[in-house]
Specification:
Elements: H1 2-20, E1 24-36, E2 39-52, E3 57-71, E4 82-98, E5 103-120, E6 123-141, E7 146-159, E8 162-164, E9 167-176
Length: about 180
Amino acid sequence: MKKILLGVALSALTATPVLAADNGGYVTGVLGASNEQNLNTAISYGVLVGYKFKTAISAEAGYLSLANNASLSSPPLGGGAATASISGYELAGVYDYPLSSQISIFGRAGYAKMNVVINANGGSTSAAESGFLLGAGMKFKLSKSFDVKAGVNSYNLSNNTGSDTPDNYYLAGTYSF
């Protein structure tokens, strides 16, 4: 009886790390290109931290810069050149659907709060905008701790004076610990 209990206990102890290997924290670096109807395509970058609760479900929070002094495609009132910067924070839930042991597709849904700054005619104006985000992409697992992703996020941001709907197309690298 003791041998059976010892065997069950050893099996449970050795199986736990395998089951827990897909759970835990991670950090993601993001680099991409964003666009918005009044904004020329801009370089985007950011960092996300997350925690995988189950094999397929994660929560992420992070900082993103969707545009940094990007030129506006339509000139402001009064003419002249104008630039815009969009940056802020996001919180999202992620669902991974495995296609194989190395490849999965994922969907993201969450909330974003961004600060939009417009520089034109020697002055600037800013507005805080918030709203929901939806995203999707594909992930390729390079090793147990590292994967790369390609995806797109669409933001629906608004405030009391208007709305912005930037899209962000990105590549990302994730390190899991």
